[in-house]
Amino acid sequence: MSDQLSNAQPQFLTVGEGEAAREIAMLVRPARAGNGAPALVWLSGYRSDMSGTKAVELDGLAAELGAACIRLDYSGHGLSGGSFGDGTISRWLEEALAVIRHVAPDRIILVGSSMGGWIALRLAQELARQGGPKLEGPKLEGMVLIAPAPDFTSELIEPNLKAKERKSLAERGYFEERSQYSPEPNIYTRALIEDGRENRVLDGIIETGCPVHILQGMKDADVPHAHALKLVEHLPADDVVLTFIRDGDHRLSRPGDIALLVSAVKGIIRSSTNRQMPA
């Protein structure tokens, strides 16, 4: 499997026009001939990229199953162009949507980690809203959300801002926060926070129209497990499975965590296969 993974070459797609144009890197694994499984779409978290452990494991699963897999780096992340400081949920959502439309799979399963869970939920809304003859999108067959962080700017960051962070946002347009995952600090911009309010999903019923499986660590220091419970309350119309991992942290990248991820994705694939079969 490692040879199959290492030979992948990134492709680039220009998203946006004029000064807003940026080159978005993507790794696309085509489906094995005759394989009818939905394409797996990986959506990374904040400051993460498509070469992370979970993303690579998902691609490995696709290789094993003969399914297509689509990974991308948001602008300002990984191999993509654009400035990280220009990043907003709307901008990264636009990029994910553009990549999906460019590759044009018939059916997809969205696998979103942390902020990628928020992007996945917004993608479901946009695909439903933008359907039609000219913008016919793929059919969303399911979602697997790993420590999802929908509305994290307004739910988890804004209520906990310290006075010096508010001052930095007002005067400099951003504030920095020490990262436990990188020597470089996390940077949160005023644009990200303001745009986050425009992309809220926890302010009403979210209708994905597909099964959703949420994996959440109970020792997650970044996204409290109560946040996953709140998300479930906003998904009353969907078939939702919530798996709590008692000793799980935010990353959920240990072998046991990966096994749960693989099992969740396979479960969604099975349910989509069953739905495709004639009654």
Automatic annotation (TrEMBL):
Function: Acts as an acyl-protein thioesterase that hydrolyzes fatty acids from acylated residues in proteins. Regulates the mitochondrial S-depalmitoylation of the nucleophilic active site residue of peroxiredoxin-5/PRDX5, a key antioxidant protein, therefore modulating mitochondrial antioxidant ability. Also catalyzes the deglucuronidation of mycophenolic acid acyl-glucuronide, an active metabolite of the immunosuppressant drug mycophenolate.
Record keywords, A-Z: Hydrolase, Transit peptide
Iron-sulfur keyword on record: no
Superkingdom of the source species: Bacteria
Catalytic activity: mycophenolic acid O-acyl-beta-D-glucuronide + H2O = mycophenolate + D-glucuronate + H(+); S-hexadecanoyl-L-cysteinyl-[protein] + H2O = L-cysteinyl-[protein] + hexadecanoate + H(+)
Name the record gives this protein: Palmitoyl-protein thioesterase ABHD10, mitochondrial
Entry EC no(s): 3.1.1.93, 3.1.2.22
InterPro entries: AB_hydrolase_1, AB_hydrolase_fold, ABHD10_acyl-thioesterase
Residues covered by the AB hydrolase-1 domain: 58-255
The keyword Metal-binding is annotated on this UniProt entry: no
Pfam families per record: Abhydrolase_6
Top-level EC class as recorded in UniProt: hydrolase
Listed GO MF terms: hydrolase activity
